[in-house]
Amino acid sequence: MATAPAIAFERVCKGWGAQPVLRDINLAFASGRITAIVGRSGCGKSTLLRLCNGLLTPDAGTVRVFGEPLPAPDPVALRRRIGYAVQQAALFPHLTGEENITLVARLEGWSAAALAERLEKLRVLVDLPADALARLPFELSGGQQQRVGLCRALFLHPAMLLLDEPFAAVDPLTRRDIHRRLLAVHAQEPVTTVLVTHDMAEALHLAEEVVILGAAGGPQVHSREALRARQGDGDAESLLLTLMGEADP
Ligand SMILES: Nc1ncnc2c1ncn2[C@@H]1O[C@H](COP(=O)(O)OP(=O)(O)OP(=O)(O)O)[C@@H](O)[C@H]1O
User: Fold this and answer.
1) Among residues 40, 42, 31, which one has the least CA distance to residue 8?
2) Which atom of ligand 1 lies nearest, measured to the CA of 213?
3) pLDDT tens figures, 3-49
4) How far apart are CA 22 and CA 165, in angstroms?
5) How far, in Å, CA of 117 to CA of 186, rounded?
6) Which residues line ligand 1 (CB under 6 A)?
7) Predicted confidence (pLDDT) at residue 234 exceeds the cutoff of 60
């Protein structure tokens, strides 16, 4: 029997005032995969992501997460199963790296030993220097803040990871390193991941499936394999950009 998708959008509409943003969206995100969402600025990528964790509610249609329609009976419990990381990391400025990463687990009453074990595992996986844990966010580099944000999003063993341009603000070399780390984490803990990005290379490097949002006929879903087969490795990024342009309503 086929497994249910981790997230399913069924005829979902969302807008602001009279301005429709997402119209009649049907989409499914497979469990355990990384999917990238690309599309022109303002086409509704972040809106779509926030519909996945119930931060926003659709005007019409249904969002199902782990097979259950939102709103979940216990939205806080649902959100704790979903890691969420955004651009600039959005860390609590008055908490150290460690405190940021472990905050919710401490609220949940994890033992000191369990906290320490999980923290060390993630710290090593994302290659965060041990001394960075004791520092406040303003004392960390942008790349270290991103790593702290990633550890925080992953700490509770989420069933789903939502990443909203989390690597946009770091230099290309650091970004490449964090990509490597994210793939290493994903190999060990294959969590369903939805990544919003403007970076076509990032989308193709990290995701097996790329969704172009904002097309007149609805979202276009492309497998990385098919994109590479059509255009060869080097040019898959250009192909994706061309498809995005063609998809303009
Ligand atoms: N809280 C809000 N109130 C009113 N309008 C909003 C709100 N949030 C988003 N919008 C509008 O909805 C549209 C989609 O926004 P969204 O942030 O989802 O786009 P995006 O594709 O992620 O954009 P970008 O690539 O620039 O980050 C935009 O026109 C935005 O101005």
Assistant:
1) 31
2) 21
3) 678 899 999 999 998 888 999 999 999 899 999 999 988 889 999 99
4) 19
5) 18
6) 16, 21, 39, 41-47
7) no
Are 87 and 165 contacting, i.e. CB atoms less than 8 angstroms apart?
yes
Cα-only R_g, the chain: 18
Centre of ligand 1 to C-alpha 45, Å, is: 8
Which residues are within 8 A (CB) of 167 and not within 5 positions of it... i.e. 6 or more apart? 146, 175, 178, 179, 197, 199, 202
Q: How close is the Cα of 175 to the center of ligand 1, in Å?
A: 25
> How far is it, in rounded angstroms, from Cα 34 to Cα 208?
6
Residue ranges of the domains in the chain?
90-157
What's the pTM value of the predicted model, to 2 decimals?
Answer: 0.88
Q: What is the CA(44)–ligand 1 centre distance, in A? A: 6
Looking only at the bridges linking them, the beta strands covering 19-29 and 7-16 are antiparallel
User: Complex ipTM, two decimals?
Assistant: 0.97
Structure tokens at 171: 């230099």
Which mutation among 12, 37, 38, 43 tests ligand 1's pocket best, with the greatest number of atoms within 8 A of CB?
A: 43
Ligand 1 pocket: which of 40, 45, 195, 211 to mutate (most atoms within 8 A of CB): 45
Q: Which residue has its alpha carbon closest to ligand 1 atom 17?
A: 46
Would you say 244 and 40 are in contact if contact means Cβ atoms under 8 Å apart? yes
The confidence score (pLDDT) of residue 1 equals 46
Q: In which residue are the tokens 């939502």 written?
A: 162
CA of 16 to the centre of ligand 1 (A): 9
Vertex 133, ends 127 and 138: CA angle to 5°? Answer: 105
